[in-house]
Amino acid sequence: MDMFSTTFDYLRPGGLIMIPLIGASCWMWVLIIERGIWFADQARRDISLRQAMDALKDRILPTECRGLRADLVRQFLDERTGRRDIDRRILERHAMRARPLIRGSLAIITTLAAVAPLFGLLGTVTGMITTFDVISLFGTGNAKAMAGGISEALITTQSGLLAAIPGLFMSVFLHRRATRLEGRLDETVSVLKRCL
């Protein structure tokens, strides 16, 4: 409780700009955690390429198998016709449906990470305007009054950068995981098409 009140006291001079900045940061981290859990789940529970080929040959996949590759094989087996050309198209169609799942929320995470320093910059501008208003009224003799505007400018800039730097790092990390998973999906489709 003491930590929250200390954090609140530190961020309060940032003014109203802190509300969208904190909101964007919280939203971004919720999406990052969701994507991180989803990628870890895909890596842990998915079937191997050999298991996918065996399932295609045996025409059955155990129900406990989950993951991108397992879902692709299961959906394909449900609609398999036995005609090679049609089955290949069915396989490609299911692979295309899986692609948006891989890239889901990554564009929003990147956008939120890019927007955070802009909120910080907006806070800098409003803080400097406040400072110049104080200077125009009292001159440079009232340092305490000027400190409020300068504090607003610096805290919002610092908060925007603190939200953006790890957000951009995580965005790149998640994009790499998505690219790797798309590669696995392409490899699976290519191998399974040859097995048909």
From TrEMBL:
Instruction: Spell out the InterPro entries in the cross-references.
Output: ExbB/TolQ_transport, MotA_ExbB_proton_chnl
Q: Which UniProt keywords apply?
A: Cell membrane, Membrane, Protein transport, Transmembrane, Transmembrane helix, Transport
Q: Where is the MotA/TolQ/ExbB proton channel domain?
A: 79-186
Transmembrane residue ranges: 15-40, 106-129, 149-174
Q: Where in the cell is it found?
A: Cell membrane; Membrane
What's the protein's topology in the membrane? Answer: Multi-pass membrane protein
Q: Which family does it belong to?
A: Belongs to the exbB/tolQ family.
- What protein name is recorded for this chain? Biopolymer transport protein ExbB
